[in-house]
Write a structure and sequence with these properties.
- This protein is α/β, with parallel strands linked by helices.
- It has one domain (2-86, 151-236): P-loop containing nucleotide triphosphate hydrolases (Rossmann fold, 3-Layer(aba) Sandwich).
- The protein is 38% helix and 25% strand.
- It contains 9 helices and 10 strands.
- The two termini are 32 Å apart.
């Protein structure tokens, strides 16, 4: 579903992403891990088509992101670590707006909006302006807007920042449901315990280079460390 070949991004003489290659299959949850400044957000923005690579290719569901950006973006949903919503719309209006943009039939919108607002405990706040929402509440609305679209690929950059424990559990359950339908999840996170529990594969990027990639058991074997993902991560990035 996501194929990255020799992806490089330079800012002047600084190489933020250095010859990165990876593959995410349909229905997989891929955890993209690394310390601050390792190149995670730069990579995810290139996959989303927000930033152009210096060299290399990104193929999403058979579409080259650089050559056919609009076609690729129809298949992709991106949630950044800082959720952007229109502050002068209510939660319900925002979800309706997203539904209209993506040509979701009105009846289907009604069902999805009610379902996701209820699932994230926001029904009683559905008609309040988003400008009054906390970071976590905005994140819930943005996640709902993505899930109701039914994209092929969902890119998350620190998806659970600001979410309460119940919402984190809802998030994990919902993305599990998505992957069963063939959706691929590409997730940057610092919460290694969650990545270890839910990700099919993880990749560890350090100073722009992929230093280990695969299922957790493969990382344990390569590193010679039979501990937790946190132990492996700290050893490889020390």
């Amino acid at each position: 579903m996501i194929e990255i070949k020799n992806l490089t991004k330079k800012f002047g003489s600084y190489c933020a992403v250095d010859n990165l290659s990876l593959l995410v299959k349909s229905g997989e949850i891929f955890g993209f891990l690394g310390p601050n400044g390792a190149g995670k957000t730069t990579t995810i923005k290139m996959i989303a088509g927000i930033m152009s690579p210096t060299s290399g290719n990104i193929i999403v569901d058979g579409v080259d992101v650089s050559k056919s950006a609009i076609e690729a973006k129809k298949k992709i949903a991106y949630i950044p670590d800082e959720p952007f919503v229109y502050p002068n719309l209510t939660a319900r209006e925002f979800l309706r707006f997203i539904g209209d943009i993506y040509d979701i039939p009105s009846k289907e919108q009604d069902e999805a909006i009610s379902f996701y607002l209820s699932r994230f405990d926001l029904l009683d706040k559905a008609d309040q302006l988003l400008g009054s929402f906390s970071h976590g509440m905005k994140q819930k609305v943005l996640i709902a807007s993505v899930l109701m679209r039914k994209p092929k690929v969902i890119l998350f950059d620190e998806p659970t920042v600001g979410l309460d424990p119940r919402s984190v559990k809802n998030f994990k359950d919902l993305i599990s449901t998505q992957t069963k339908a063939g959706v691929s999840i590409f997730m940057c996170t610092h919460i290694l315990e969650m990545a270890e529990k839910i990700c099919d594969k993880v990749g560890i990027i350090y100073n722009g280079k992929m230093i280990s990639c695969g299922p957790i058991d493969k990382l344990r074997k390569e590193s010679g460390n039979n501990g937790s993902l946190e132990d492996i991560f700290l050893e490889l990035t020390s």
